[in-house]
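debug: dumping io for the single-chain case to check the tokenizer round-trip. Nothing else runs in this session.
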Amino acid sequence: MKSNSPSTHRACVSMILLREVENGETEVLIVHKPRKRDAWQIPQGGIEEGETVMEAAKRELQEETSITLHEDPLPSKEFYQYDYPAGFKKSQKPKYNGQHLTFVVAKVPRETAVIVDKRELDAFKWIHPRELPKYLRRENYRETVERAIRDAR
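debug: decoded output
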């Protein structure tokens, strides 16, 4: 699966990781970046040259959480695209205008261990999807994640 990212935006993948807990309930993994704004998110990262969405998803998940998926995640029809803030563009002069995130979903066993690298990410939580509004502040991003989770059930 190739990314449908426009050339003006960096192609990225966002990995929605789900696990079943008591009473058939589902939890989703969120990770925390050591920054002030929009610190909580779904594991994500850039798709490297020559890499498919699935390859990037598995690589990024392994790099950020030490979780190795042995099967490809399921593609989601959901994506999220945003432009970098003007101040960031002016000071950092990025190659792209923003990012285009393609979402994929995987289910893991309840006992799956998560280890964050303490550099790029400094914490993680398994939460019920109804708790997402407490952590994911960007409404459009959160709604995209919520739709992808609903579609995966």
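debug: round-trip ok. The domain at 9-152 is CATH 3.90.79.10 (Nucleoside Triphosphate Pyrophosphohydrolase).
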